[in-house]
Write a structure and sequence with these properties.
alpha+beta, globular, single chain, Thiol Ester Dehydrase, Chain A
């Protein structure tokens, strides 16, 4: 039987991830199948601090921040998928690589970025995930995310 969780709010996300404003890029987890997949969202508002400079006349979310949002979702999936007590309170998922990145369309204020991350494999403490980001069911970014767990 699958261990599926729905709706993880921002307080629980903050308990699981070390990131804080303005760098916490996940507002809510919609669904998790522990150890397998996660679906999270980030509401993109005009008030995001990066829009002041990217770009002043045409606000576009930087691609590197879309990748970071996918990596944060991967870190959540990894953290939620590990058996209780296997991680210390000081353990963190670190981003160690990004492969096969593709940007297909811009993300702008008013968009709701839906992050889908699926676990692929774990080899020698390197966790590999397939991640995609969608807006209104349109694929905007995809990548393979590589992480490791360190104290």
């Amino acid at each position: 039987m699958q261990d599926t969780t729905t709706m993880i709010d921002i307080e629980k996300i903050q308990a699981l991830l070390p990131h804080r404003y303005p760098f916490l890029l996940i507002d809510r987890v919609i669904e998790v199948e522990k150890g397998q997949s996660i679906k999270a969202l980030k509401n993109i508002t005009f008030n995001e601090p990066f829009f002041q400079g990217h770009f002043p006349n045409k606000s576009v979310m930087p691609g590197v921040l879309i990748i970071e949002a996918m990596a944060q979702a991967a870190g959540l999936l990894g953290t939620l998928g590990i058996e209780e007590g296997k991680l210390s309170k000081d353990s963190l998922f670190y981003l160690v690589g990004v492969d096969k990145v593709r940007f297909r369309r811009p993300v702008v204020p008013g968009d709701q970025l839906i992050l889908d991350v699926n676990f692929i494999t774990l080899k020698r403490n390197i966790w590999k995930f397939h991640a995609s980001a969608h807006v209104d069911s349109h694929l905007v970014t995809s990548a393979e995310i590589l992480t490791t767990v360190m104290e």
